[in-house]
Design a protein that fits this description.
heterodimer; A: about 300 residues; alpha+beta; Sulfite Oxidase, Chain A, domain 2; eight-stranded mixed beta sheet; 13 strands; about 20% helix; about 20% strand; globular; B: about 210 residues; mainly alpha; about 0% strand; OxRdtase_Mopterin-bd_sf (chain A); EC 1.8.5.- (chain A); oxidoreductase (chain A); signal (chain A)
Chain lengths: ~300, ~210
Amino acid sequence: MVYRFKTDLKYSDITPHETFVNRRQLIAGAGAAAFGSIAGPALAKIDAAKSGYSTEMEPSSFEDITTYNNFYEFGTGKSDPSSYADALTVDPWAIKIDGLVDRPGKYDLGAILKVVNMEERIYRHRCVETWSMVIPWIGFELKTVLDRVGVQSGAKYVAFETLHRPSEMTAQKRQLLDWPYREGLRLDEAMHPLTILATGLYGEEMPKQNGAPIRLVVPWKYGYKSIKSIVRITLTDKQPKTTWNEIGPDEYGFYSNVNPEVSHPRWSQATERPVGGGLFARRKPTLKFNGYEEEVASLYAGMDLVENH
Amino acid sequence: MTITQRINTGLKRVPAWPLYIVGPLPVIWLYYLGLTNQLGADPVKAIEQQLGLIGLQLIVAGLMITPLRRFAGLNLIKFRRAIGLLAFFYVTVHLLTWLVVDTQLDWAYIWMDIVKRPYITIGMTGFLLLLPLAVTSNNISIRRLGPATWNKLHRLTYAAALAGAVHYVWLVKGWQTEPLVYLAGIVTLLLVRIRIRSKRIVASTLKRAG
């Protein structure tokens, strides 16, 4: 039995083949009219509302965002994702939502996207490797989905999993990480309005190398917390095991909040290099919680953020 | 005449000095690419990593010369000094890129990095180990020190090579293949030396006994 969100849509509206094929138009919010039009690159645009949570900083270039990133499923080099992610099939796509929820099930992405409000969120992005970008994501609050499936009172954490498909994600053939990639948040972090599931950037559908078709974005944490290509969301009462935390608990904490005061054995986190500034770009000081201190510091009131890094 | 002998004879006519001219050219090329925005989003890291990698590759190349002669009969010994000095050159430019371009001579930050970050500490150690080798890479030094002392001093290469490889393994996230391959290669090349040396000792003992 496949459960669905409570919507006024009929079963037949949700998973027909056209839905998969025309997901681009669905995202575009063009509604029924789009079904009659012909798919093309121009239709990949997503209509999204502006958001008060967007930074006023100048976004990094589309080229930098899409050619310089980490997505170890496609290799460890910064340009590997853009070189090899093409092989990934992102349509059809479903997300299994299970654990301590009222309506567990395997939800088709098209169905999820019909019931959410798309927003453009221009966020700072800070990698643990000390580079940073500004990225105009298109997405919706994770809370919307969690509320829809009904989080049970015992749930304290949210666990996420990336797709495991070595035939397409070829670096998964190597034992580089313990696949599939896993991440997790505390429930209150997951419910925070800054935490979004993104399906696009720069007004267009999410490039595969950036975590298509749907990824998490948690802007006050190091980039690796923002898990890509999500296929499973589990509500749980125990702190979930997360990929990098398992590999090196001293280096990669469960929380992984951007914190200039907690240095990493390999990188001082005191400063960062904004990507795209060329050879002589100056480093700049890193801000606590990546500049979102006002919004999220209260989540960690009374916690030792060195101990719980 | 075997192929190896033929190569050796051919190599006698190849001078080592062009290496000093051709060797540094990739540095200019890398900086040109960086300045003209052809190295991707983070040109500083790209240059830094490429220089470090070439430095390590040259160290490996230098370490291969003795085993190649011993096991394959290939004599490249006359290129070893140039290869070693080029390795030092790349490691130095790699370090200078980090100091000047990357951290922009923020000494407090640099010092903290050296002290607090084991992979940088090890990298710096590797550089310091190479320093006396580079300084004594000339005939006058060999004469002054005497070949035996000079040879002993130049065994620091082994420690420097290990430091370089560990620096690389430690620098990347997780256990990545490429740095581990370099580390394994260097360890193998050093183990081969231990075997060469012990054989030599056995041989000389036998001779004396005989």
